[in-house]
Design brief:
The chain is globular, with a radius of gyration of 15 Å. A hairpin with a 2-residue loop joins strand 1 and strand 2 (about 50). It has helices spanning about 1-5, 15-20, 55-65, 80-85, 100-110, 150-155, and strands at about 45, 50, 70-75, 90-95, 120, 135-145, 155-165, 170-180, 180-190. The chain is of the alpha/beta class. The strands form two sheets. It has a seven-stranded mixed β-sheet. A two-stranded antiparallel ribbon has the order 1-2. The protein contains six helices and nine strands; from the N terminus they run ααββαβαβαββαβββ.
Length: about 210
Amino acid sequence: MVEGQVRTADVTDRSLLAVLSDLPRERFVPKAKRELAYMDGDVPVAEGRHLLSPRVLAKMIQAGDITPASAVLAIGTATGYAAAVLGRMAASVIALEADEALAKQAADLLSELEIDNAVIEVGPLAEGYSAQAPYDVIFVDGSIPQPSTALQDQLAEDGRLLAIIQPDVSGKACLFRKDGSTITKRILFDASAPPLPGFAVEPTFVF
C-alpha cells in the first residue's frame, strides 16, 4: 500500500510513511471485507461509512503539517483508522463519531493498539467538539459540502482544516487556514469520497 499507492502520490513525510507502514489497516475493516483493506479506494466499514483511500488520506494528512505538539480533531472517524494514524503523529486527538456502535468499535481498537492519546467522543459531526477547542488541525474523514461555522470557530490561530469539499458528484481536497477572523482556502487536488452525515450548506459561510 505504502510503496504502490502512497509514495507514488508524492507523499514524502517520513513519520507519516512509517505510521502507515506499521499500522494494521485491516483491523479497522469488518472481517468479511478485510481483503479490501489495502485496495486503492474507499473501503466500506458500515452502512454508508468508509475508510478513505490510502492515497487520499495520506496526501491530506501530509498537507496538515502535523507535529508531535499538534492538537487534532478528527471528524467522522468511523472505526478509527484515521484517528489511529493521527494519534501516532500528534500530541492529542479527539475523534468525533455520530454513530455510537462505530464509536465503540473505534475506542476498542485504539485501546487494543495502545494509542492512548486519541479519545473517541460521540456527537453530531458538524458541531465539532468545542470542549477541547481550539485545535491546530481539524481533519474531516469524508466529504462535506463545506465546513460548518462550528468547525471554523474551533480552529486555533493558524489552524488548518482538511476536508474533501464535494457539493455534488465531483470534489476537491482542500486546506482551510485560520488567520485572525479570516479563513483562507486552498485546493490541494481532485478527490471524491462518500459524504459524512449531518452537514448542510450554510449560505452565510464566507471564506
